[in-house]
Amino acid sequence: MDYFYGPGRNHLFVPGPVNIPEPVIRAMNRNNEDYRSPAVPALTKTLLEDVKKIFKTTSGTPFLIPTTGTGAWESALTNTLSPGDRTISFLIGQFSLLWIDQQQRLNFNVDVIESEWGQGANLDILASKLAADRAHTIKAICIVHNETATGVTNDLSKVRKLLDEYRHPALFLVDGVSSICALDFRMDEWGIDVALTGSQKALSLPTGMGIVCASPKALEASKTARSVRVFFDWKDYLKFYKMGTFWPYTPSIQLLYGLRAALDLIFEEGLENVIARHSRLGNATRLAVEAWGLKNCTQKEEWYSNTVTAVLVPPYIDSTEIVKRAWKRYNLSLGLGLNKVAGKVFRIGHLGNLNELQLLGCLAGVEMLLKDVGYPVKLGSGVAAACAYLQNNIPLITSRI
Amino acid sequence: MDYFYGPGRNHLFVPGPVNIPEPVIRAMNRNNEDYRSPAVPALTKTLLEDVKKIFKTTSGTPFLIPTTGTGAWESALTNTLSPGDRTISFLIGQFSLLWIDQQQRLNFNVDVIESEWGQGANLDILASKLAADRAHTIKAICIVHNETATGVTNDLSKVRKLLDEYRHPALFLVDGVSSICALDFRMDEWGIDVALTGSQKALSLPTGMGIVCASPKALEASKTARSVRVFFDWKDYLKFYKMGTFWPYTPSIQLLYGLRAALDLIFEEGLENVIARHSRLGNATRLAVEAWGLKNCTQKEEWYSNTVTAVLVPPYIDSTEIVKRAWKRYNLSLGLGLNKVAGKVFRIGHLGNLNELQLLGCLAGVEMLLKDVGYPVKLGSGVAAACAYLQNNIPLITSRI
Amino acid sequence: MDYFYGPGRNHLFVPGPVNIPEPVIRAMNRNNEDYRSPAVPALTKTLLEDVKKIFKTTSGTPFLIPTTGTGAWESALTNTLSPGDRTISFLIGQFSLLWIDQQQRLNFNVDVIESEWGQGANLDILASKLAADRAHTIKAICIVHNETATGVTNDLSKVRKLLDEYRHPALFLVDGVSSICALDFRMDEWGIDVALTGSQKALSLPTGMGIVCASPKALEASKTARSVRVFFDWKDYLKFYKMGTFWPYTPSIQLLYGLRAALDLIFEEGLENVIARHSRLGNATRLAVEAWGLKNCTQKEEWYSNTVTAVLVPPYIDSTEIVKRAWKRYNLSLGLGLNKVAGKVFRIGHLGNLNELQLLGCLAGVEMLLKDVGYPVKLGSGVAAACAYLQNNIPLITSRI
Amino acid sequence: MDYFYGPGRNHLFVPGPVNIPEPVIRAMNRNNEDYRSPAVPALTKTLLEDVKKIFKTTSGTPFLIPTTGTGAWESALTNTLSPGDRTISFLIGQFSLLWIDQQQRLNFNVDVIESEWGQGANLDILASKLAADRAHTIKAICIVHNETATGVTNDLSKVRKLLDEYRHPALFLVDGVSSICALDFRMDEWGIDVALTGSQKALSLPTGMGIVCASPKALEASKTARSVRVFFDWKDYLKFYKMGTFWPYTPSIQLLYGLRAALDLIFEEGLENVIARHSRLGNATRLAVEAWGLKNCTQKEEWYSNTVTAVLVPPYIDSTEIVKRAWKRYNLSLGLGLNKVAGKVFRIGHLGNLNELQLLGCLAGVEMLLKDVGYPVKLGSGVAAACAYLQNNIPLITSRI
């Protein structure tokens, strides 16, 4: 039973959920198991060890929570902060907006630093706020590494630099939902206190697992944080970690085996190669956009995202029409423009288990779509630009050399 | 890759997660999809409509939350109650204990009515408390329909009767985790305000979906409830329900299709037939226990559970050994005794997509296990008792007549 | 476990085995069943009825044989002919060559009509042979509808016309392996006596089912045909058809359910729409080849194949290198040149459950490959030509309008 | 979509096709691949090497043929014999009958040695025939190792002994369809020239792969054998083996990966442990039959089969009713009585990936069935007898100790 079946593969280019590789689909194709038998803890142990590698942390403590990215946010915040705590949060797009909304509803005192959508986090203002905060009233810096709505990647190393410069003890909380496992991410090196992602993004799993990683400092903070929490409480996890049974409540057996397979694939390809592949996909997409004569919603190269590109359409075109038509005519799923940029951008997600020829099929589809809606694109132009770059840069597949 | 492979099927007789039927495994064997395309809302709409049938409600509003039973509890409580609110909660086993713990940590004023483990909720005390509460300080009655740790089923209709008798406006919140879709459950008729279950129980899905159903009165309460919540906030769901896109954050595509298949199977069998099958499985199990000369942890027939049987072992036997050995020698997964009854009981879960011959294989295994650990069981006795009952009571499979 | 894993989807563009759609993979994801229970005959009955639709026959009798195309050939021949019988067979490429080889090894007297590879069957010679054969020594005309090695489609209606013109009673045996369910095929209208295909071609299933359809005249011939056969003997099938149990030996349960799903998808799309889609894919591919400045191995438009295109490379290029490199660098599977055209052509299969954007991804890959091996292709040129055509011709997906 | 769905697992106790273990179902849950890419030959190479282990041969040459057991028979015969050749064949049940029928239709001169159904091959007569055959007119001894219709296992070592004793050069051809991978089988030690099995039997795969293994002597014979064959011709395989591409025509990618997984499971358990497990299952079944007061169709202990038990019912009972009712009421699939023993026996298959508790569930079901049809069985008696034996004999699962 499929709803609205179309022939051939669906071309899934939303910035999540993304394509699940066949070996992962296979690994999850299984019956339930007793999670109190010795098998599940044995499996969990390898996962907790290996998942740290994608965060690039050795000192962090990971939590595999049966939830979504939104829940992972809540886990990060409620375990480390108390009501009334001052947080600094950057408003640069829909997802940072939603996180700020969550922070406010959780009763933090959110100090919002807003940028125009398409720009990155304004770190100059952060600097001045840190400078001014001698009393250390700022308890946490909350930042979205990669704003999925606008395709903007923030430079986390600079945030750390500023915190160090001002010797500021604020916790450094990072939403890595559309970055971790696809973009360069270094939890330990950048002194990140809580980092989080969701299974359905670069890990290329189904939705349902929020992965949160806490630094020792964050764990320490969790002991005194007074935000009310039960389901998201790290304490319960830590108690079961100590007992070696790992789970305070029932995990999804399927997602555990899926995560095992997903990590195996990432390690087989090599995490650095995965990141390099995303860089190629990002570059190729941007070259195509340029060849079409369209603008990237992201205003400066320093913020270009290698996991999603938000493409600005001319004012006489409604980007929503492009997305609808993509699905109706080409079996292509593109991302809508959200909120402030609704109707103005469409988004090409290029993250997860994806290769160059898949992207080129998508780009060819976008060209036809642009023509469909009356934009005078030169057919083949974007693909040509992308190919010219890719043909010089795609490496041989390591296992096949 | 399997951990600790054993030949043949694993005999899964923990009271959840339970066996997933093949058609459901098949339905979930799929790639991700864009949940903002028209297909997912169309699918979701049918699910929200149909899921009400398993709650037996027409006026309730269901929420399919990417979480576990623990999260579903939190959703039920935080959306309807405010910190400091007085709840009445029945402590009769490990799961009611955990729910009470959650209520306390969420800062409610929990009025605990305790029973010996193996007994049901003490409704006489409830009656007296209701009688005394002229001021209506009791905001909610929280009750676990079926306590999975002891195999005790509470009579919800009596709770409603008492509330009516005393014209008490308290909300009636029910954990139906190991009951809904297996035991007789009537949300509307019994005036339940919030009922909840988890996907991995009688629905026979993987873990990962908490299903919560709210009465109009509960929805009304949610407008003024001051418990802090974001991820679990019904408001966000209701907003997206109104928009027709249904999802405030990313759902698991696989679980949605899985739920569709699970409901289809339940409706094909007929919900009443599903409940009757659980009754047969429960009766057969209890007859076997009796034939073995062992006692049911459940002290009275009125509380007997048709989804799980906790079997008391003689004092000279450690029930944990039975469970360990079941897995090591017979590829059989039984439930451990928890907390107060650890070492004293083992549990046979008999819920979900399960038939009589599967149960008989399990019962035969338990007989050998009892012998293994030195209990003087007469081999074949329990199976004989169960068969004598079942051979008289199993109907022909409707589709095969 | 995958051999030589590469990130992202494998782009499968060999002319078979082809991509299996997800609903079909799902349908086959199942345990074995007793094929003597009532369920399998009930399923088989619908299959035998529905499979006739893809042959466009109402009078034919289909056989679903656990074998490959080679076995289906053998079934067609041995059931209708006797050793020493004169057959006319057209040698136009590797697969017609192999069939001729089989005919010779089965001891028929094969009268071979050879054409240059890249040309279709020489029907003028057929005409003269029919004209000369007053004695009706020709017992069968054996023809490959679509020669997969060269991408040549023969005109079967003309063969029928000639047979009618000369009132020749020869049996008309057709290999429809890479045509049926993708190209226009009309068993009854064209008076075909045995038509056959394989599951892994346009039906988009795994390999393992040879589907043979026999006209009443062919069935009649089978009663006296003296070729030795047991496994392939239609008689055994017919005996079990009569008994209503259908299977003389064990069928693959998985392929039966897979065929059910495959047929359902074809009927949902509409067989005529499936054929039109293949026409679009063929046209688009040929436009790309032309834009690259390369030649189609098929020498005349009348023989152009809509399921596979064999592309001639310049003499200074080894087409085998292209195919190897496609797999090693781009995770793209192209077809090799076979036998006489080895090294000279590479093949793009465009059949089965495939859509336009998938093809465009492949074409973009071929452009990069051509550049890789030193051919001065203008990147984007083929995709541009294909897009210009497709953007005008792709219909909306019916279920999504 | 399932035909005639019943709740819970289907209890599959026909003697093939048998239960597929989950890891094998998972391994086959995949898209097609280009079988001419380097991956498939690499995989095939490991399969051909490893499959020899289940035949216990180092000198044999295996063929993995896309066919069924019937096709495997034909492959064994046509590659080694010429029309008119004298074969000795033992008629002891339905499957030996069918093989004899095939031999006759393939124009061999079949010298049939018949036994009563329920008895093994009459080796005394074989001895006298060998003794008499000074001229070596007997070209092959054809024997079914385990007759699936009656549950009779022949002693192959005795056949070899006789051949050696009379220094007779006849080929020794063995149908191991329901024995290999379940019963003790030693191709090299017993001097077997062709042995064969089918994927859906003890290997626990779907139907569709006939596995044939030829000794050097058989390969030598194939060079001069004049039986007509193409699809089944070993020559084509050997040609592609030499080229390293392995496949003369398209294999099922899914079955190749499935076979890989199936062999891995068998080697993980240990082939000797697999055989011991079948011995336990056979013994347990026979003890149950005895306890029920019923007779085994197999007349002597020396012929008892550990893969299937044919149970004789009293004359006043129609065994067909038992089989029908098993499926209709208990979701249990039993084997019918075939041909001479139709209505007189029902069969319990106990082969493949199966464990003791699964069998006990089946035995309990049979007890209820016997009662259903009016046989005065003591419920629990068979299970008790089986349990008494099994509880003493089941080892711990190696991986879980």
TrEMBL record, chains A, B, C, D:
Q: Which cofactor does it need?
A: pyridoxal 5'-phosphate
Q: Does the keyword Transferase apply?
A: yes
Q: Which GO terms describe its cellular component?
A: peroxisome
- Residue numbers binding substrate: 347
Q: What EC identifiers does the entry list?
A: 2.6.1.44
Classification via Pfam families: Aminotran_5 (PF00266)
Which InterPro entries is this protein grouped with?
Aminotrans_V_dom, Aminotrans_V_PyrdxlP_BS, PyrdxlP-dep_Trfase, PyrdxlP-dep_Trfase_major, PyrdxlP-dep_Trfase_small, SP_NH2Trfase/AEP_transaminase
Entry keywords, A to Z: Aminotransferase, Pyridoxal phosphate, Transferase
- Domain Aminotransferase class V span(s) in chain numbering: 48-297
Similarity field: Belongs to the class-V pyridoxal-phosphate-dependent aminotransferase family.
Name of the protein described by the UniProt record: alanine--glyoxylate transaminase
Q: Name one GO biological process term.
A: glycine biosynthetic process, by transamination of glyoxylate
Please name the GO terms that the record assigns under molecular function: alanine-glyoxylate transaminase activity; L-serine-pyruvate transaminase activity
Q: Does the keyword Electron transport apply?
A: no
Q: What class of enzyme is it?
A: transferase
Q: N6-(pyridoxal phosphate)lysine: which positions carry it?
A: 201
